[in-house]
């Protein structure tokens, strides 16, 4: 059953990152995020869920260091020293943002190339991540030859090629059809379970957030803020049995109710 409580206490290791009372005001005066506090531990799967404009992307970009916070603190208590070719973060955008003139292999190589890793040295890890996302046979094709779901797989492979501790995903599957989305949800969970990084996953979908997450951060707009954090206390692996269970439905209803409060009665897409 969903329980509403503060984030679980960090077990043995300190949190990966710790946001305290973080606000973001853009130069035009918009208060995109107000007073957000969040701890993210190792191997968590956290979703940011809320209506358009509630600051989900802003919060994600703050964590990624793509935007500066206006007040509050964001700390990385573990401060992992990245090895050569490794980065603490991977980022997956809503659009796959692939280079159309480059083959799949070279698209995935990009972050390593930028880090100074040669094509030959990068080849084994590129092959490995392409295998992880189910595209090992597609290294030599151009993005135009791939379906939308496959392009998103390439984008995920590119984010994973640096072996990040934390994968940030901004509505990665929103543009995909239902069947492809379910398949990618399952494959993402399998990769996450095996490789034990943490994920922050932005979504509009109650169903997707409950299926994937160990914790859901419910947000509201104007100003963007956290309403509630809901723990989805269900074991992994999760599959069709969970998706069709009454417990899944109960979690969805609890999250829906929390969102409804956040929206003041308006509807949200799912
Ligand atoms: N660069 C910017 N300059 C000014 N205002 C911005 C900027 N980026 C975002 N905002 C505003 O900040 C608020 C939060 O935006 P954000 O993109 O984080 O919302 P979101 O929850 O990701 O929405 P969506 O679900 O539509 O993607 C919105 O009111 C938006 O208009
Ligand atoms: Mg957004």
Structure overview:
The protein has 270 residues and is of the alpha/beta class. Helices cover 35% and strands 22% of the residues. The protein contains eight helices and ten strands. The strands form two sheets. A seven-stranded mixed sheet has the order 1-10-9-4-8-7-6, sandwiched between helices. The protein has a three-stranded antiparallel sheet with strand order 3-2-5, with helices on one face. Helix 2 runs parallel beside helix 4 (148-160), helix 3 (119-132) packs across helix 4 (148-160) and helix 6 crosses helix 8. The longest helix has 18 residues, at 178-195. It is globular. The model is unreliable at 1-10 (pLDDT under 50).
SSE topology:
Elements: E1 3-4, E2 17-25, E3 31-40, E4 45-49, H1 56-64, E5 71-75, E6 89-92, H2 104-114, H3 119-132, H4 148-160, E7 166-170, H5 178-195, E8 198-203, H6 206-212, E9 215-220, E10 225-231, H7 240-243, H8 246-263
Parallel strand pairs: 4-8, 4-9, 6-7, 7-8
Antiparallel strand pairs: 1-10, 2-3, 2-5, 9-10
Helix pairs in contact: 2-3, 2-4, 3-4, 6-8
This protein binds adenosine-5'-triphosphate and magnesium ion (MG).
Can I get a quick summary?
The protein contains 8 helices and 10 strands. The protein is an alpha/beta fold and 270 residues long.
Offer a few descriptive terms.
alpha/beta, binds magnesium ion, binds adenosine-5'-triphosphate, 7-stranded mixed β-sheet, 10 strands, 270 residues, 3-stranded antiparallel β-sheet
């Amino acid at each position: 059953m969903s329980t509403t409580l503060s984030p679980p206490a960090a077990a043995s290791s300190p949190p990966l990152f710790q946001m305290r009372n973080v606000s973001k005001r853009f130069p035009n005066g918009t208060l995109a995020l107000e007073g957000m506090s969040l701890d993210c531990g190792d191997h968590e799967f956290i979703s940011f869920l809320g209506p358009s404009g509630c600051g989900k992307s802003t919060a994600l970009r703050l964590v990624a260091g793509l935007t500066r916070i206006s007040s509050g603190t964001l700390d990385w208590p573990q401060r992992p020293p990245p090895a050569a070719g490794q980065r603490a973060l991977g980022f997956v955008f809503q659009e796959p943002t692939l280079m159309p003139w480059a083959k799949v292999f070279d698209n995935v190589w990009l972050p390593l190339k930028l880090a100074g890793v040669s094509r030959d040295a990068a080849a084994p890890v590129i092959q490995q991540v392409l295998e992880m996302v189910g595209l090992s046979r597609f290294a030599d094709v151009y993005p135009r030859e791939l379906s939308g779901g496959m392009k998103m797989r390439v984008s995920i492979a590119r984010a994973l090629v640096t072996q990040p501790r934390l994968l940030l995903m901004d509505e990665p599957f929103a543009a995909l059809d239902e069947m492809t989305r379910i398949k990618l949800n399952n494959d993402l969970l399998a990769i996450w379970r095996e490789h034990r990084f943490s994920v922050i996953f932005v979504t509009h979908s109650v169903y997707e957030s409950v299926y994937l997450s160990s914790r859901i951060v419910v947000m509201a707009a104007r100003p963007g803020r956290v309403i509630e954090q809901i723990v989805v206390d269900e074991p992994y692996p999760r599959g069709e049995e969970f998706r069709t269970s009454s417990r899944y439905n109960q979690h969805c209803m609890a999250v829906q109710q929390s969102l409804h409060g956040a929206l003041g009665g308006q509807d949200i897409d799912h």
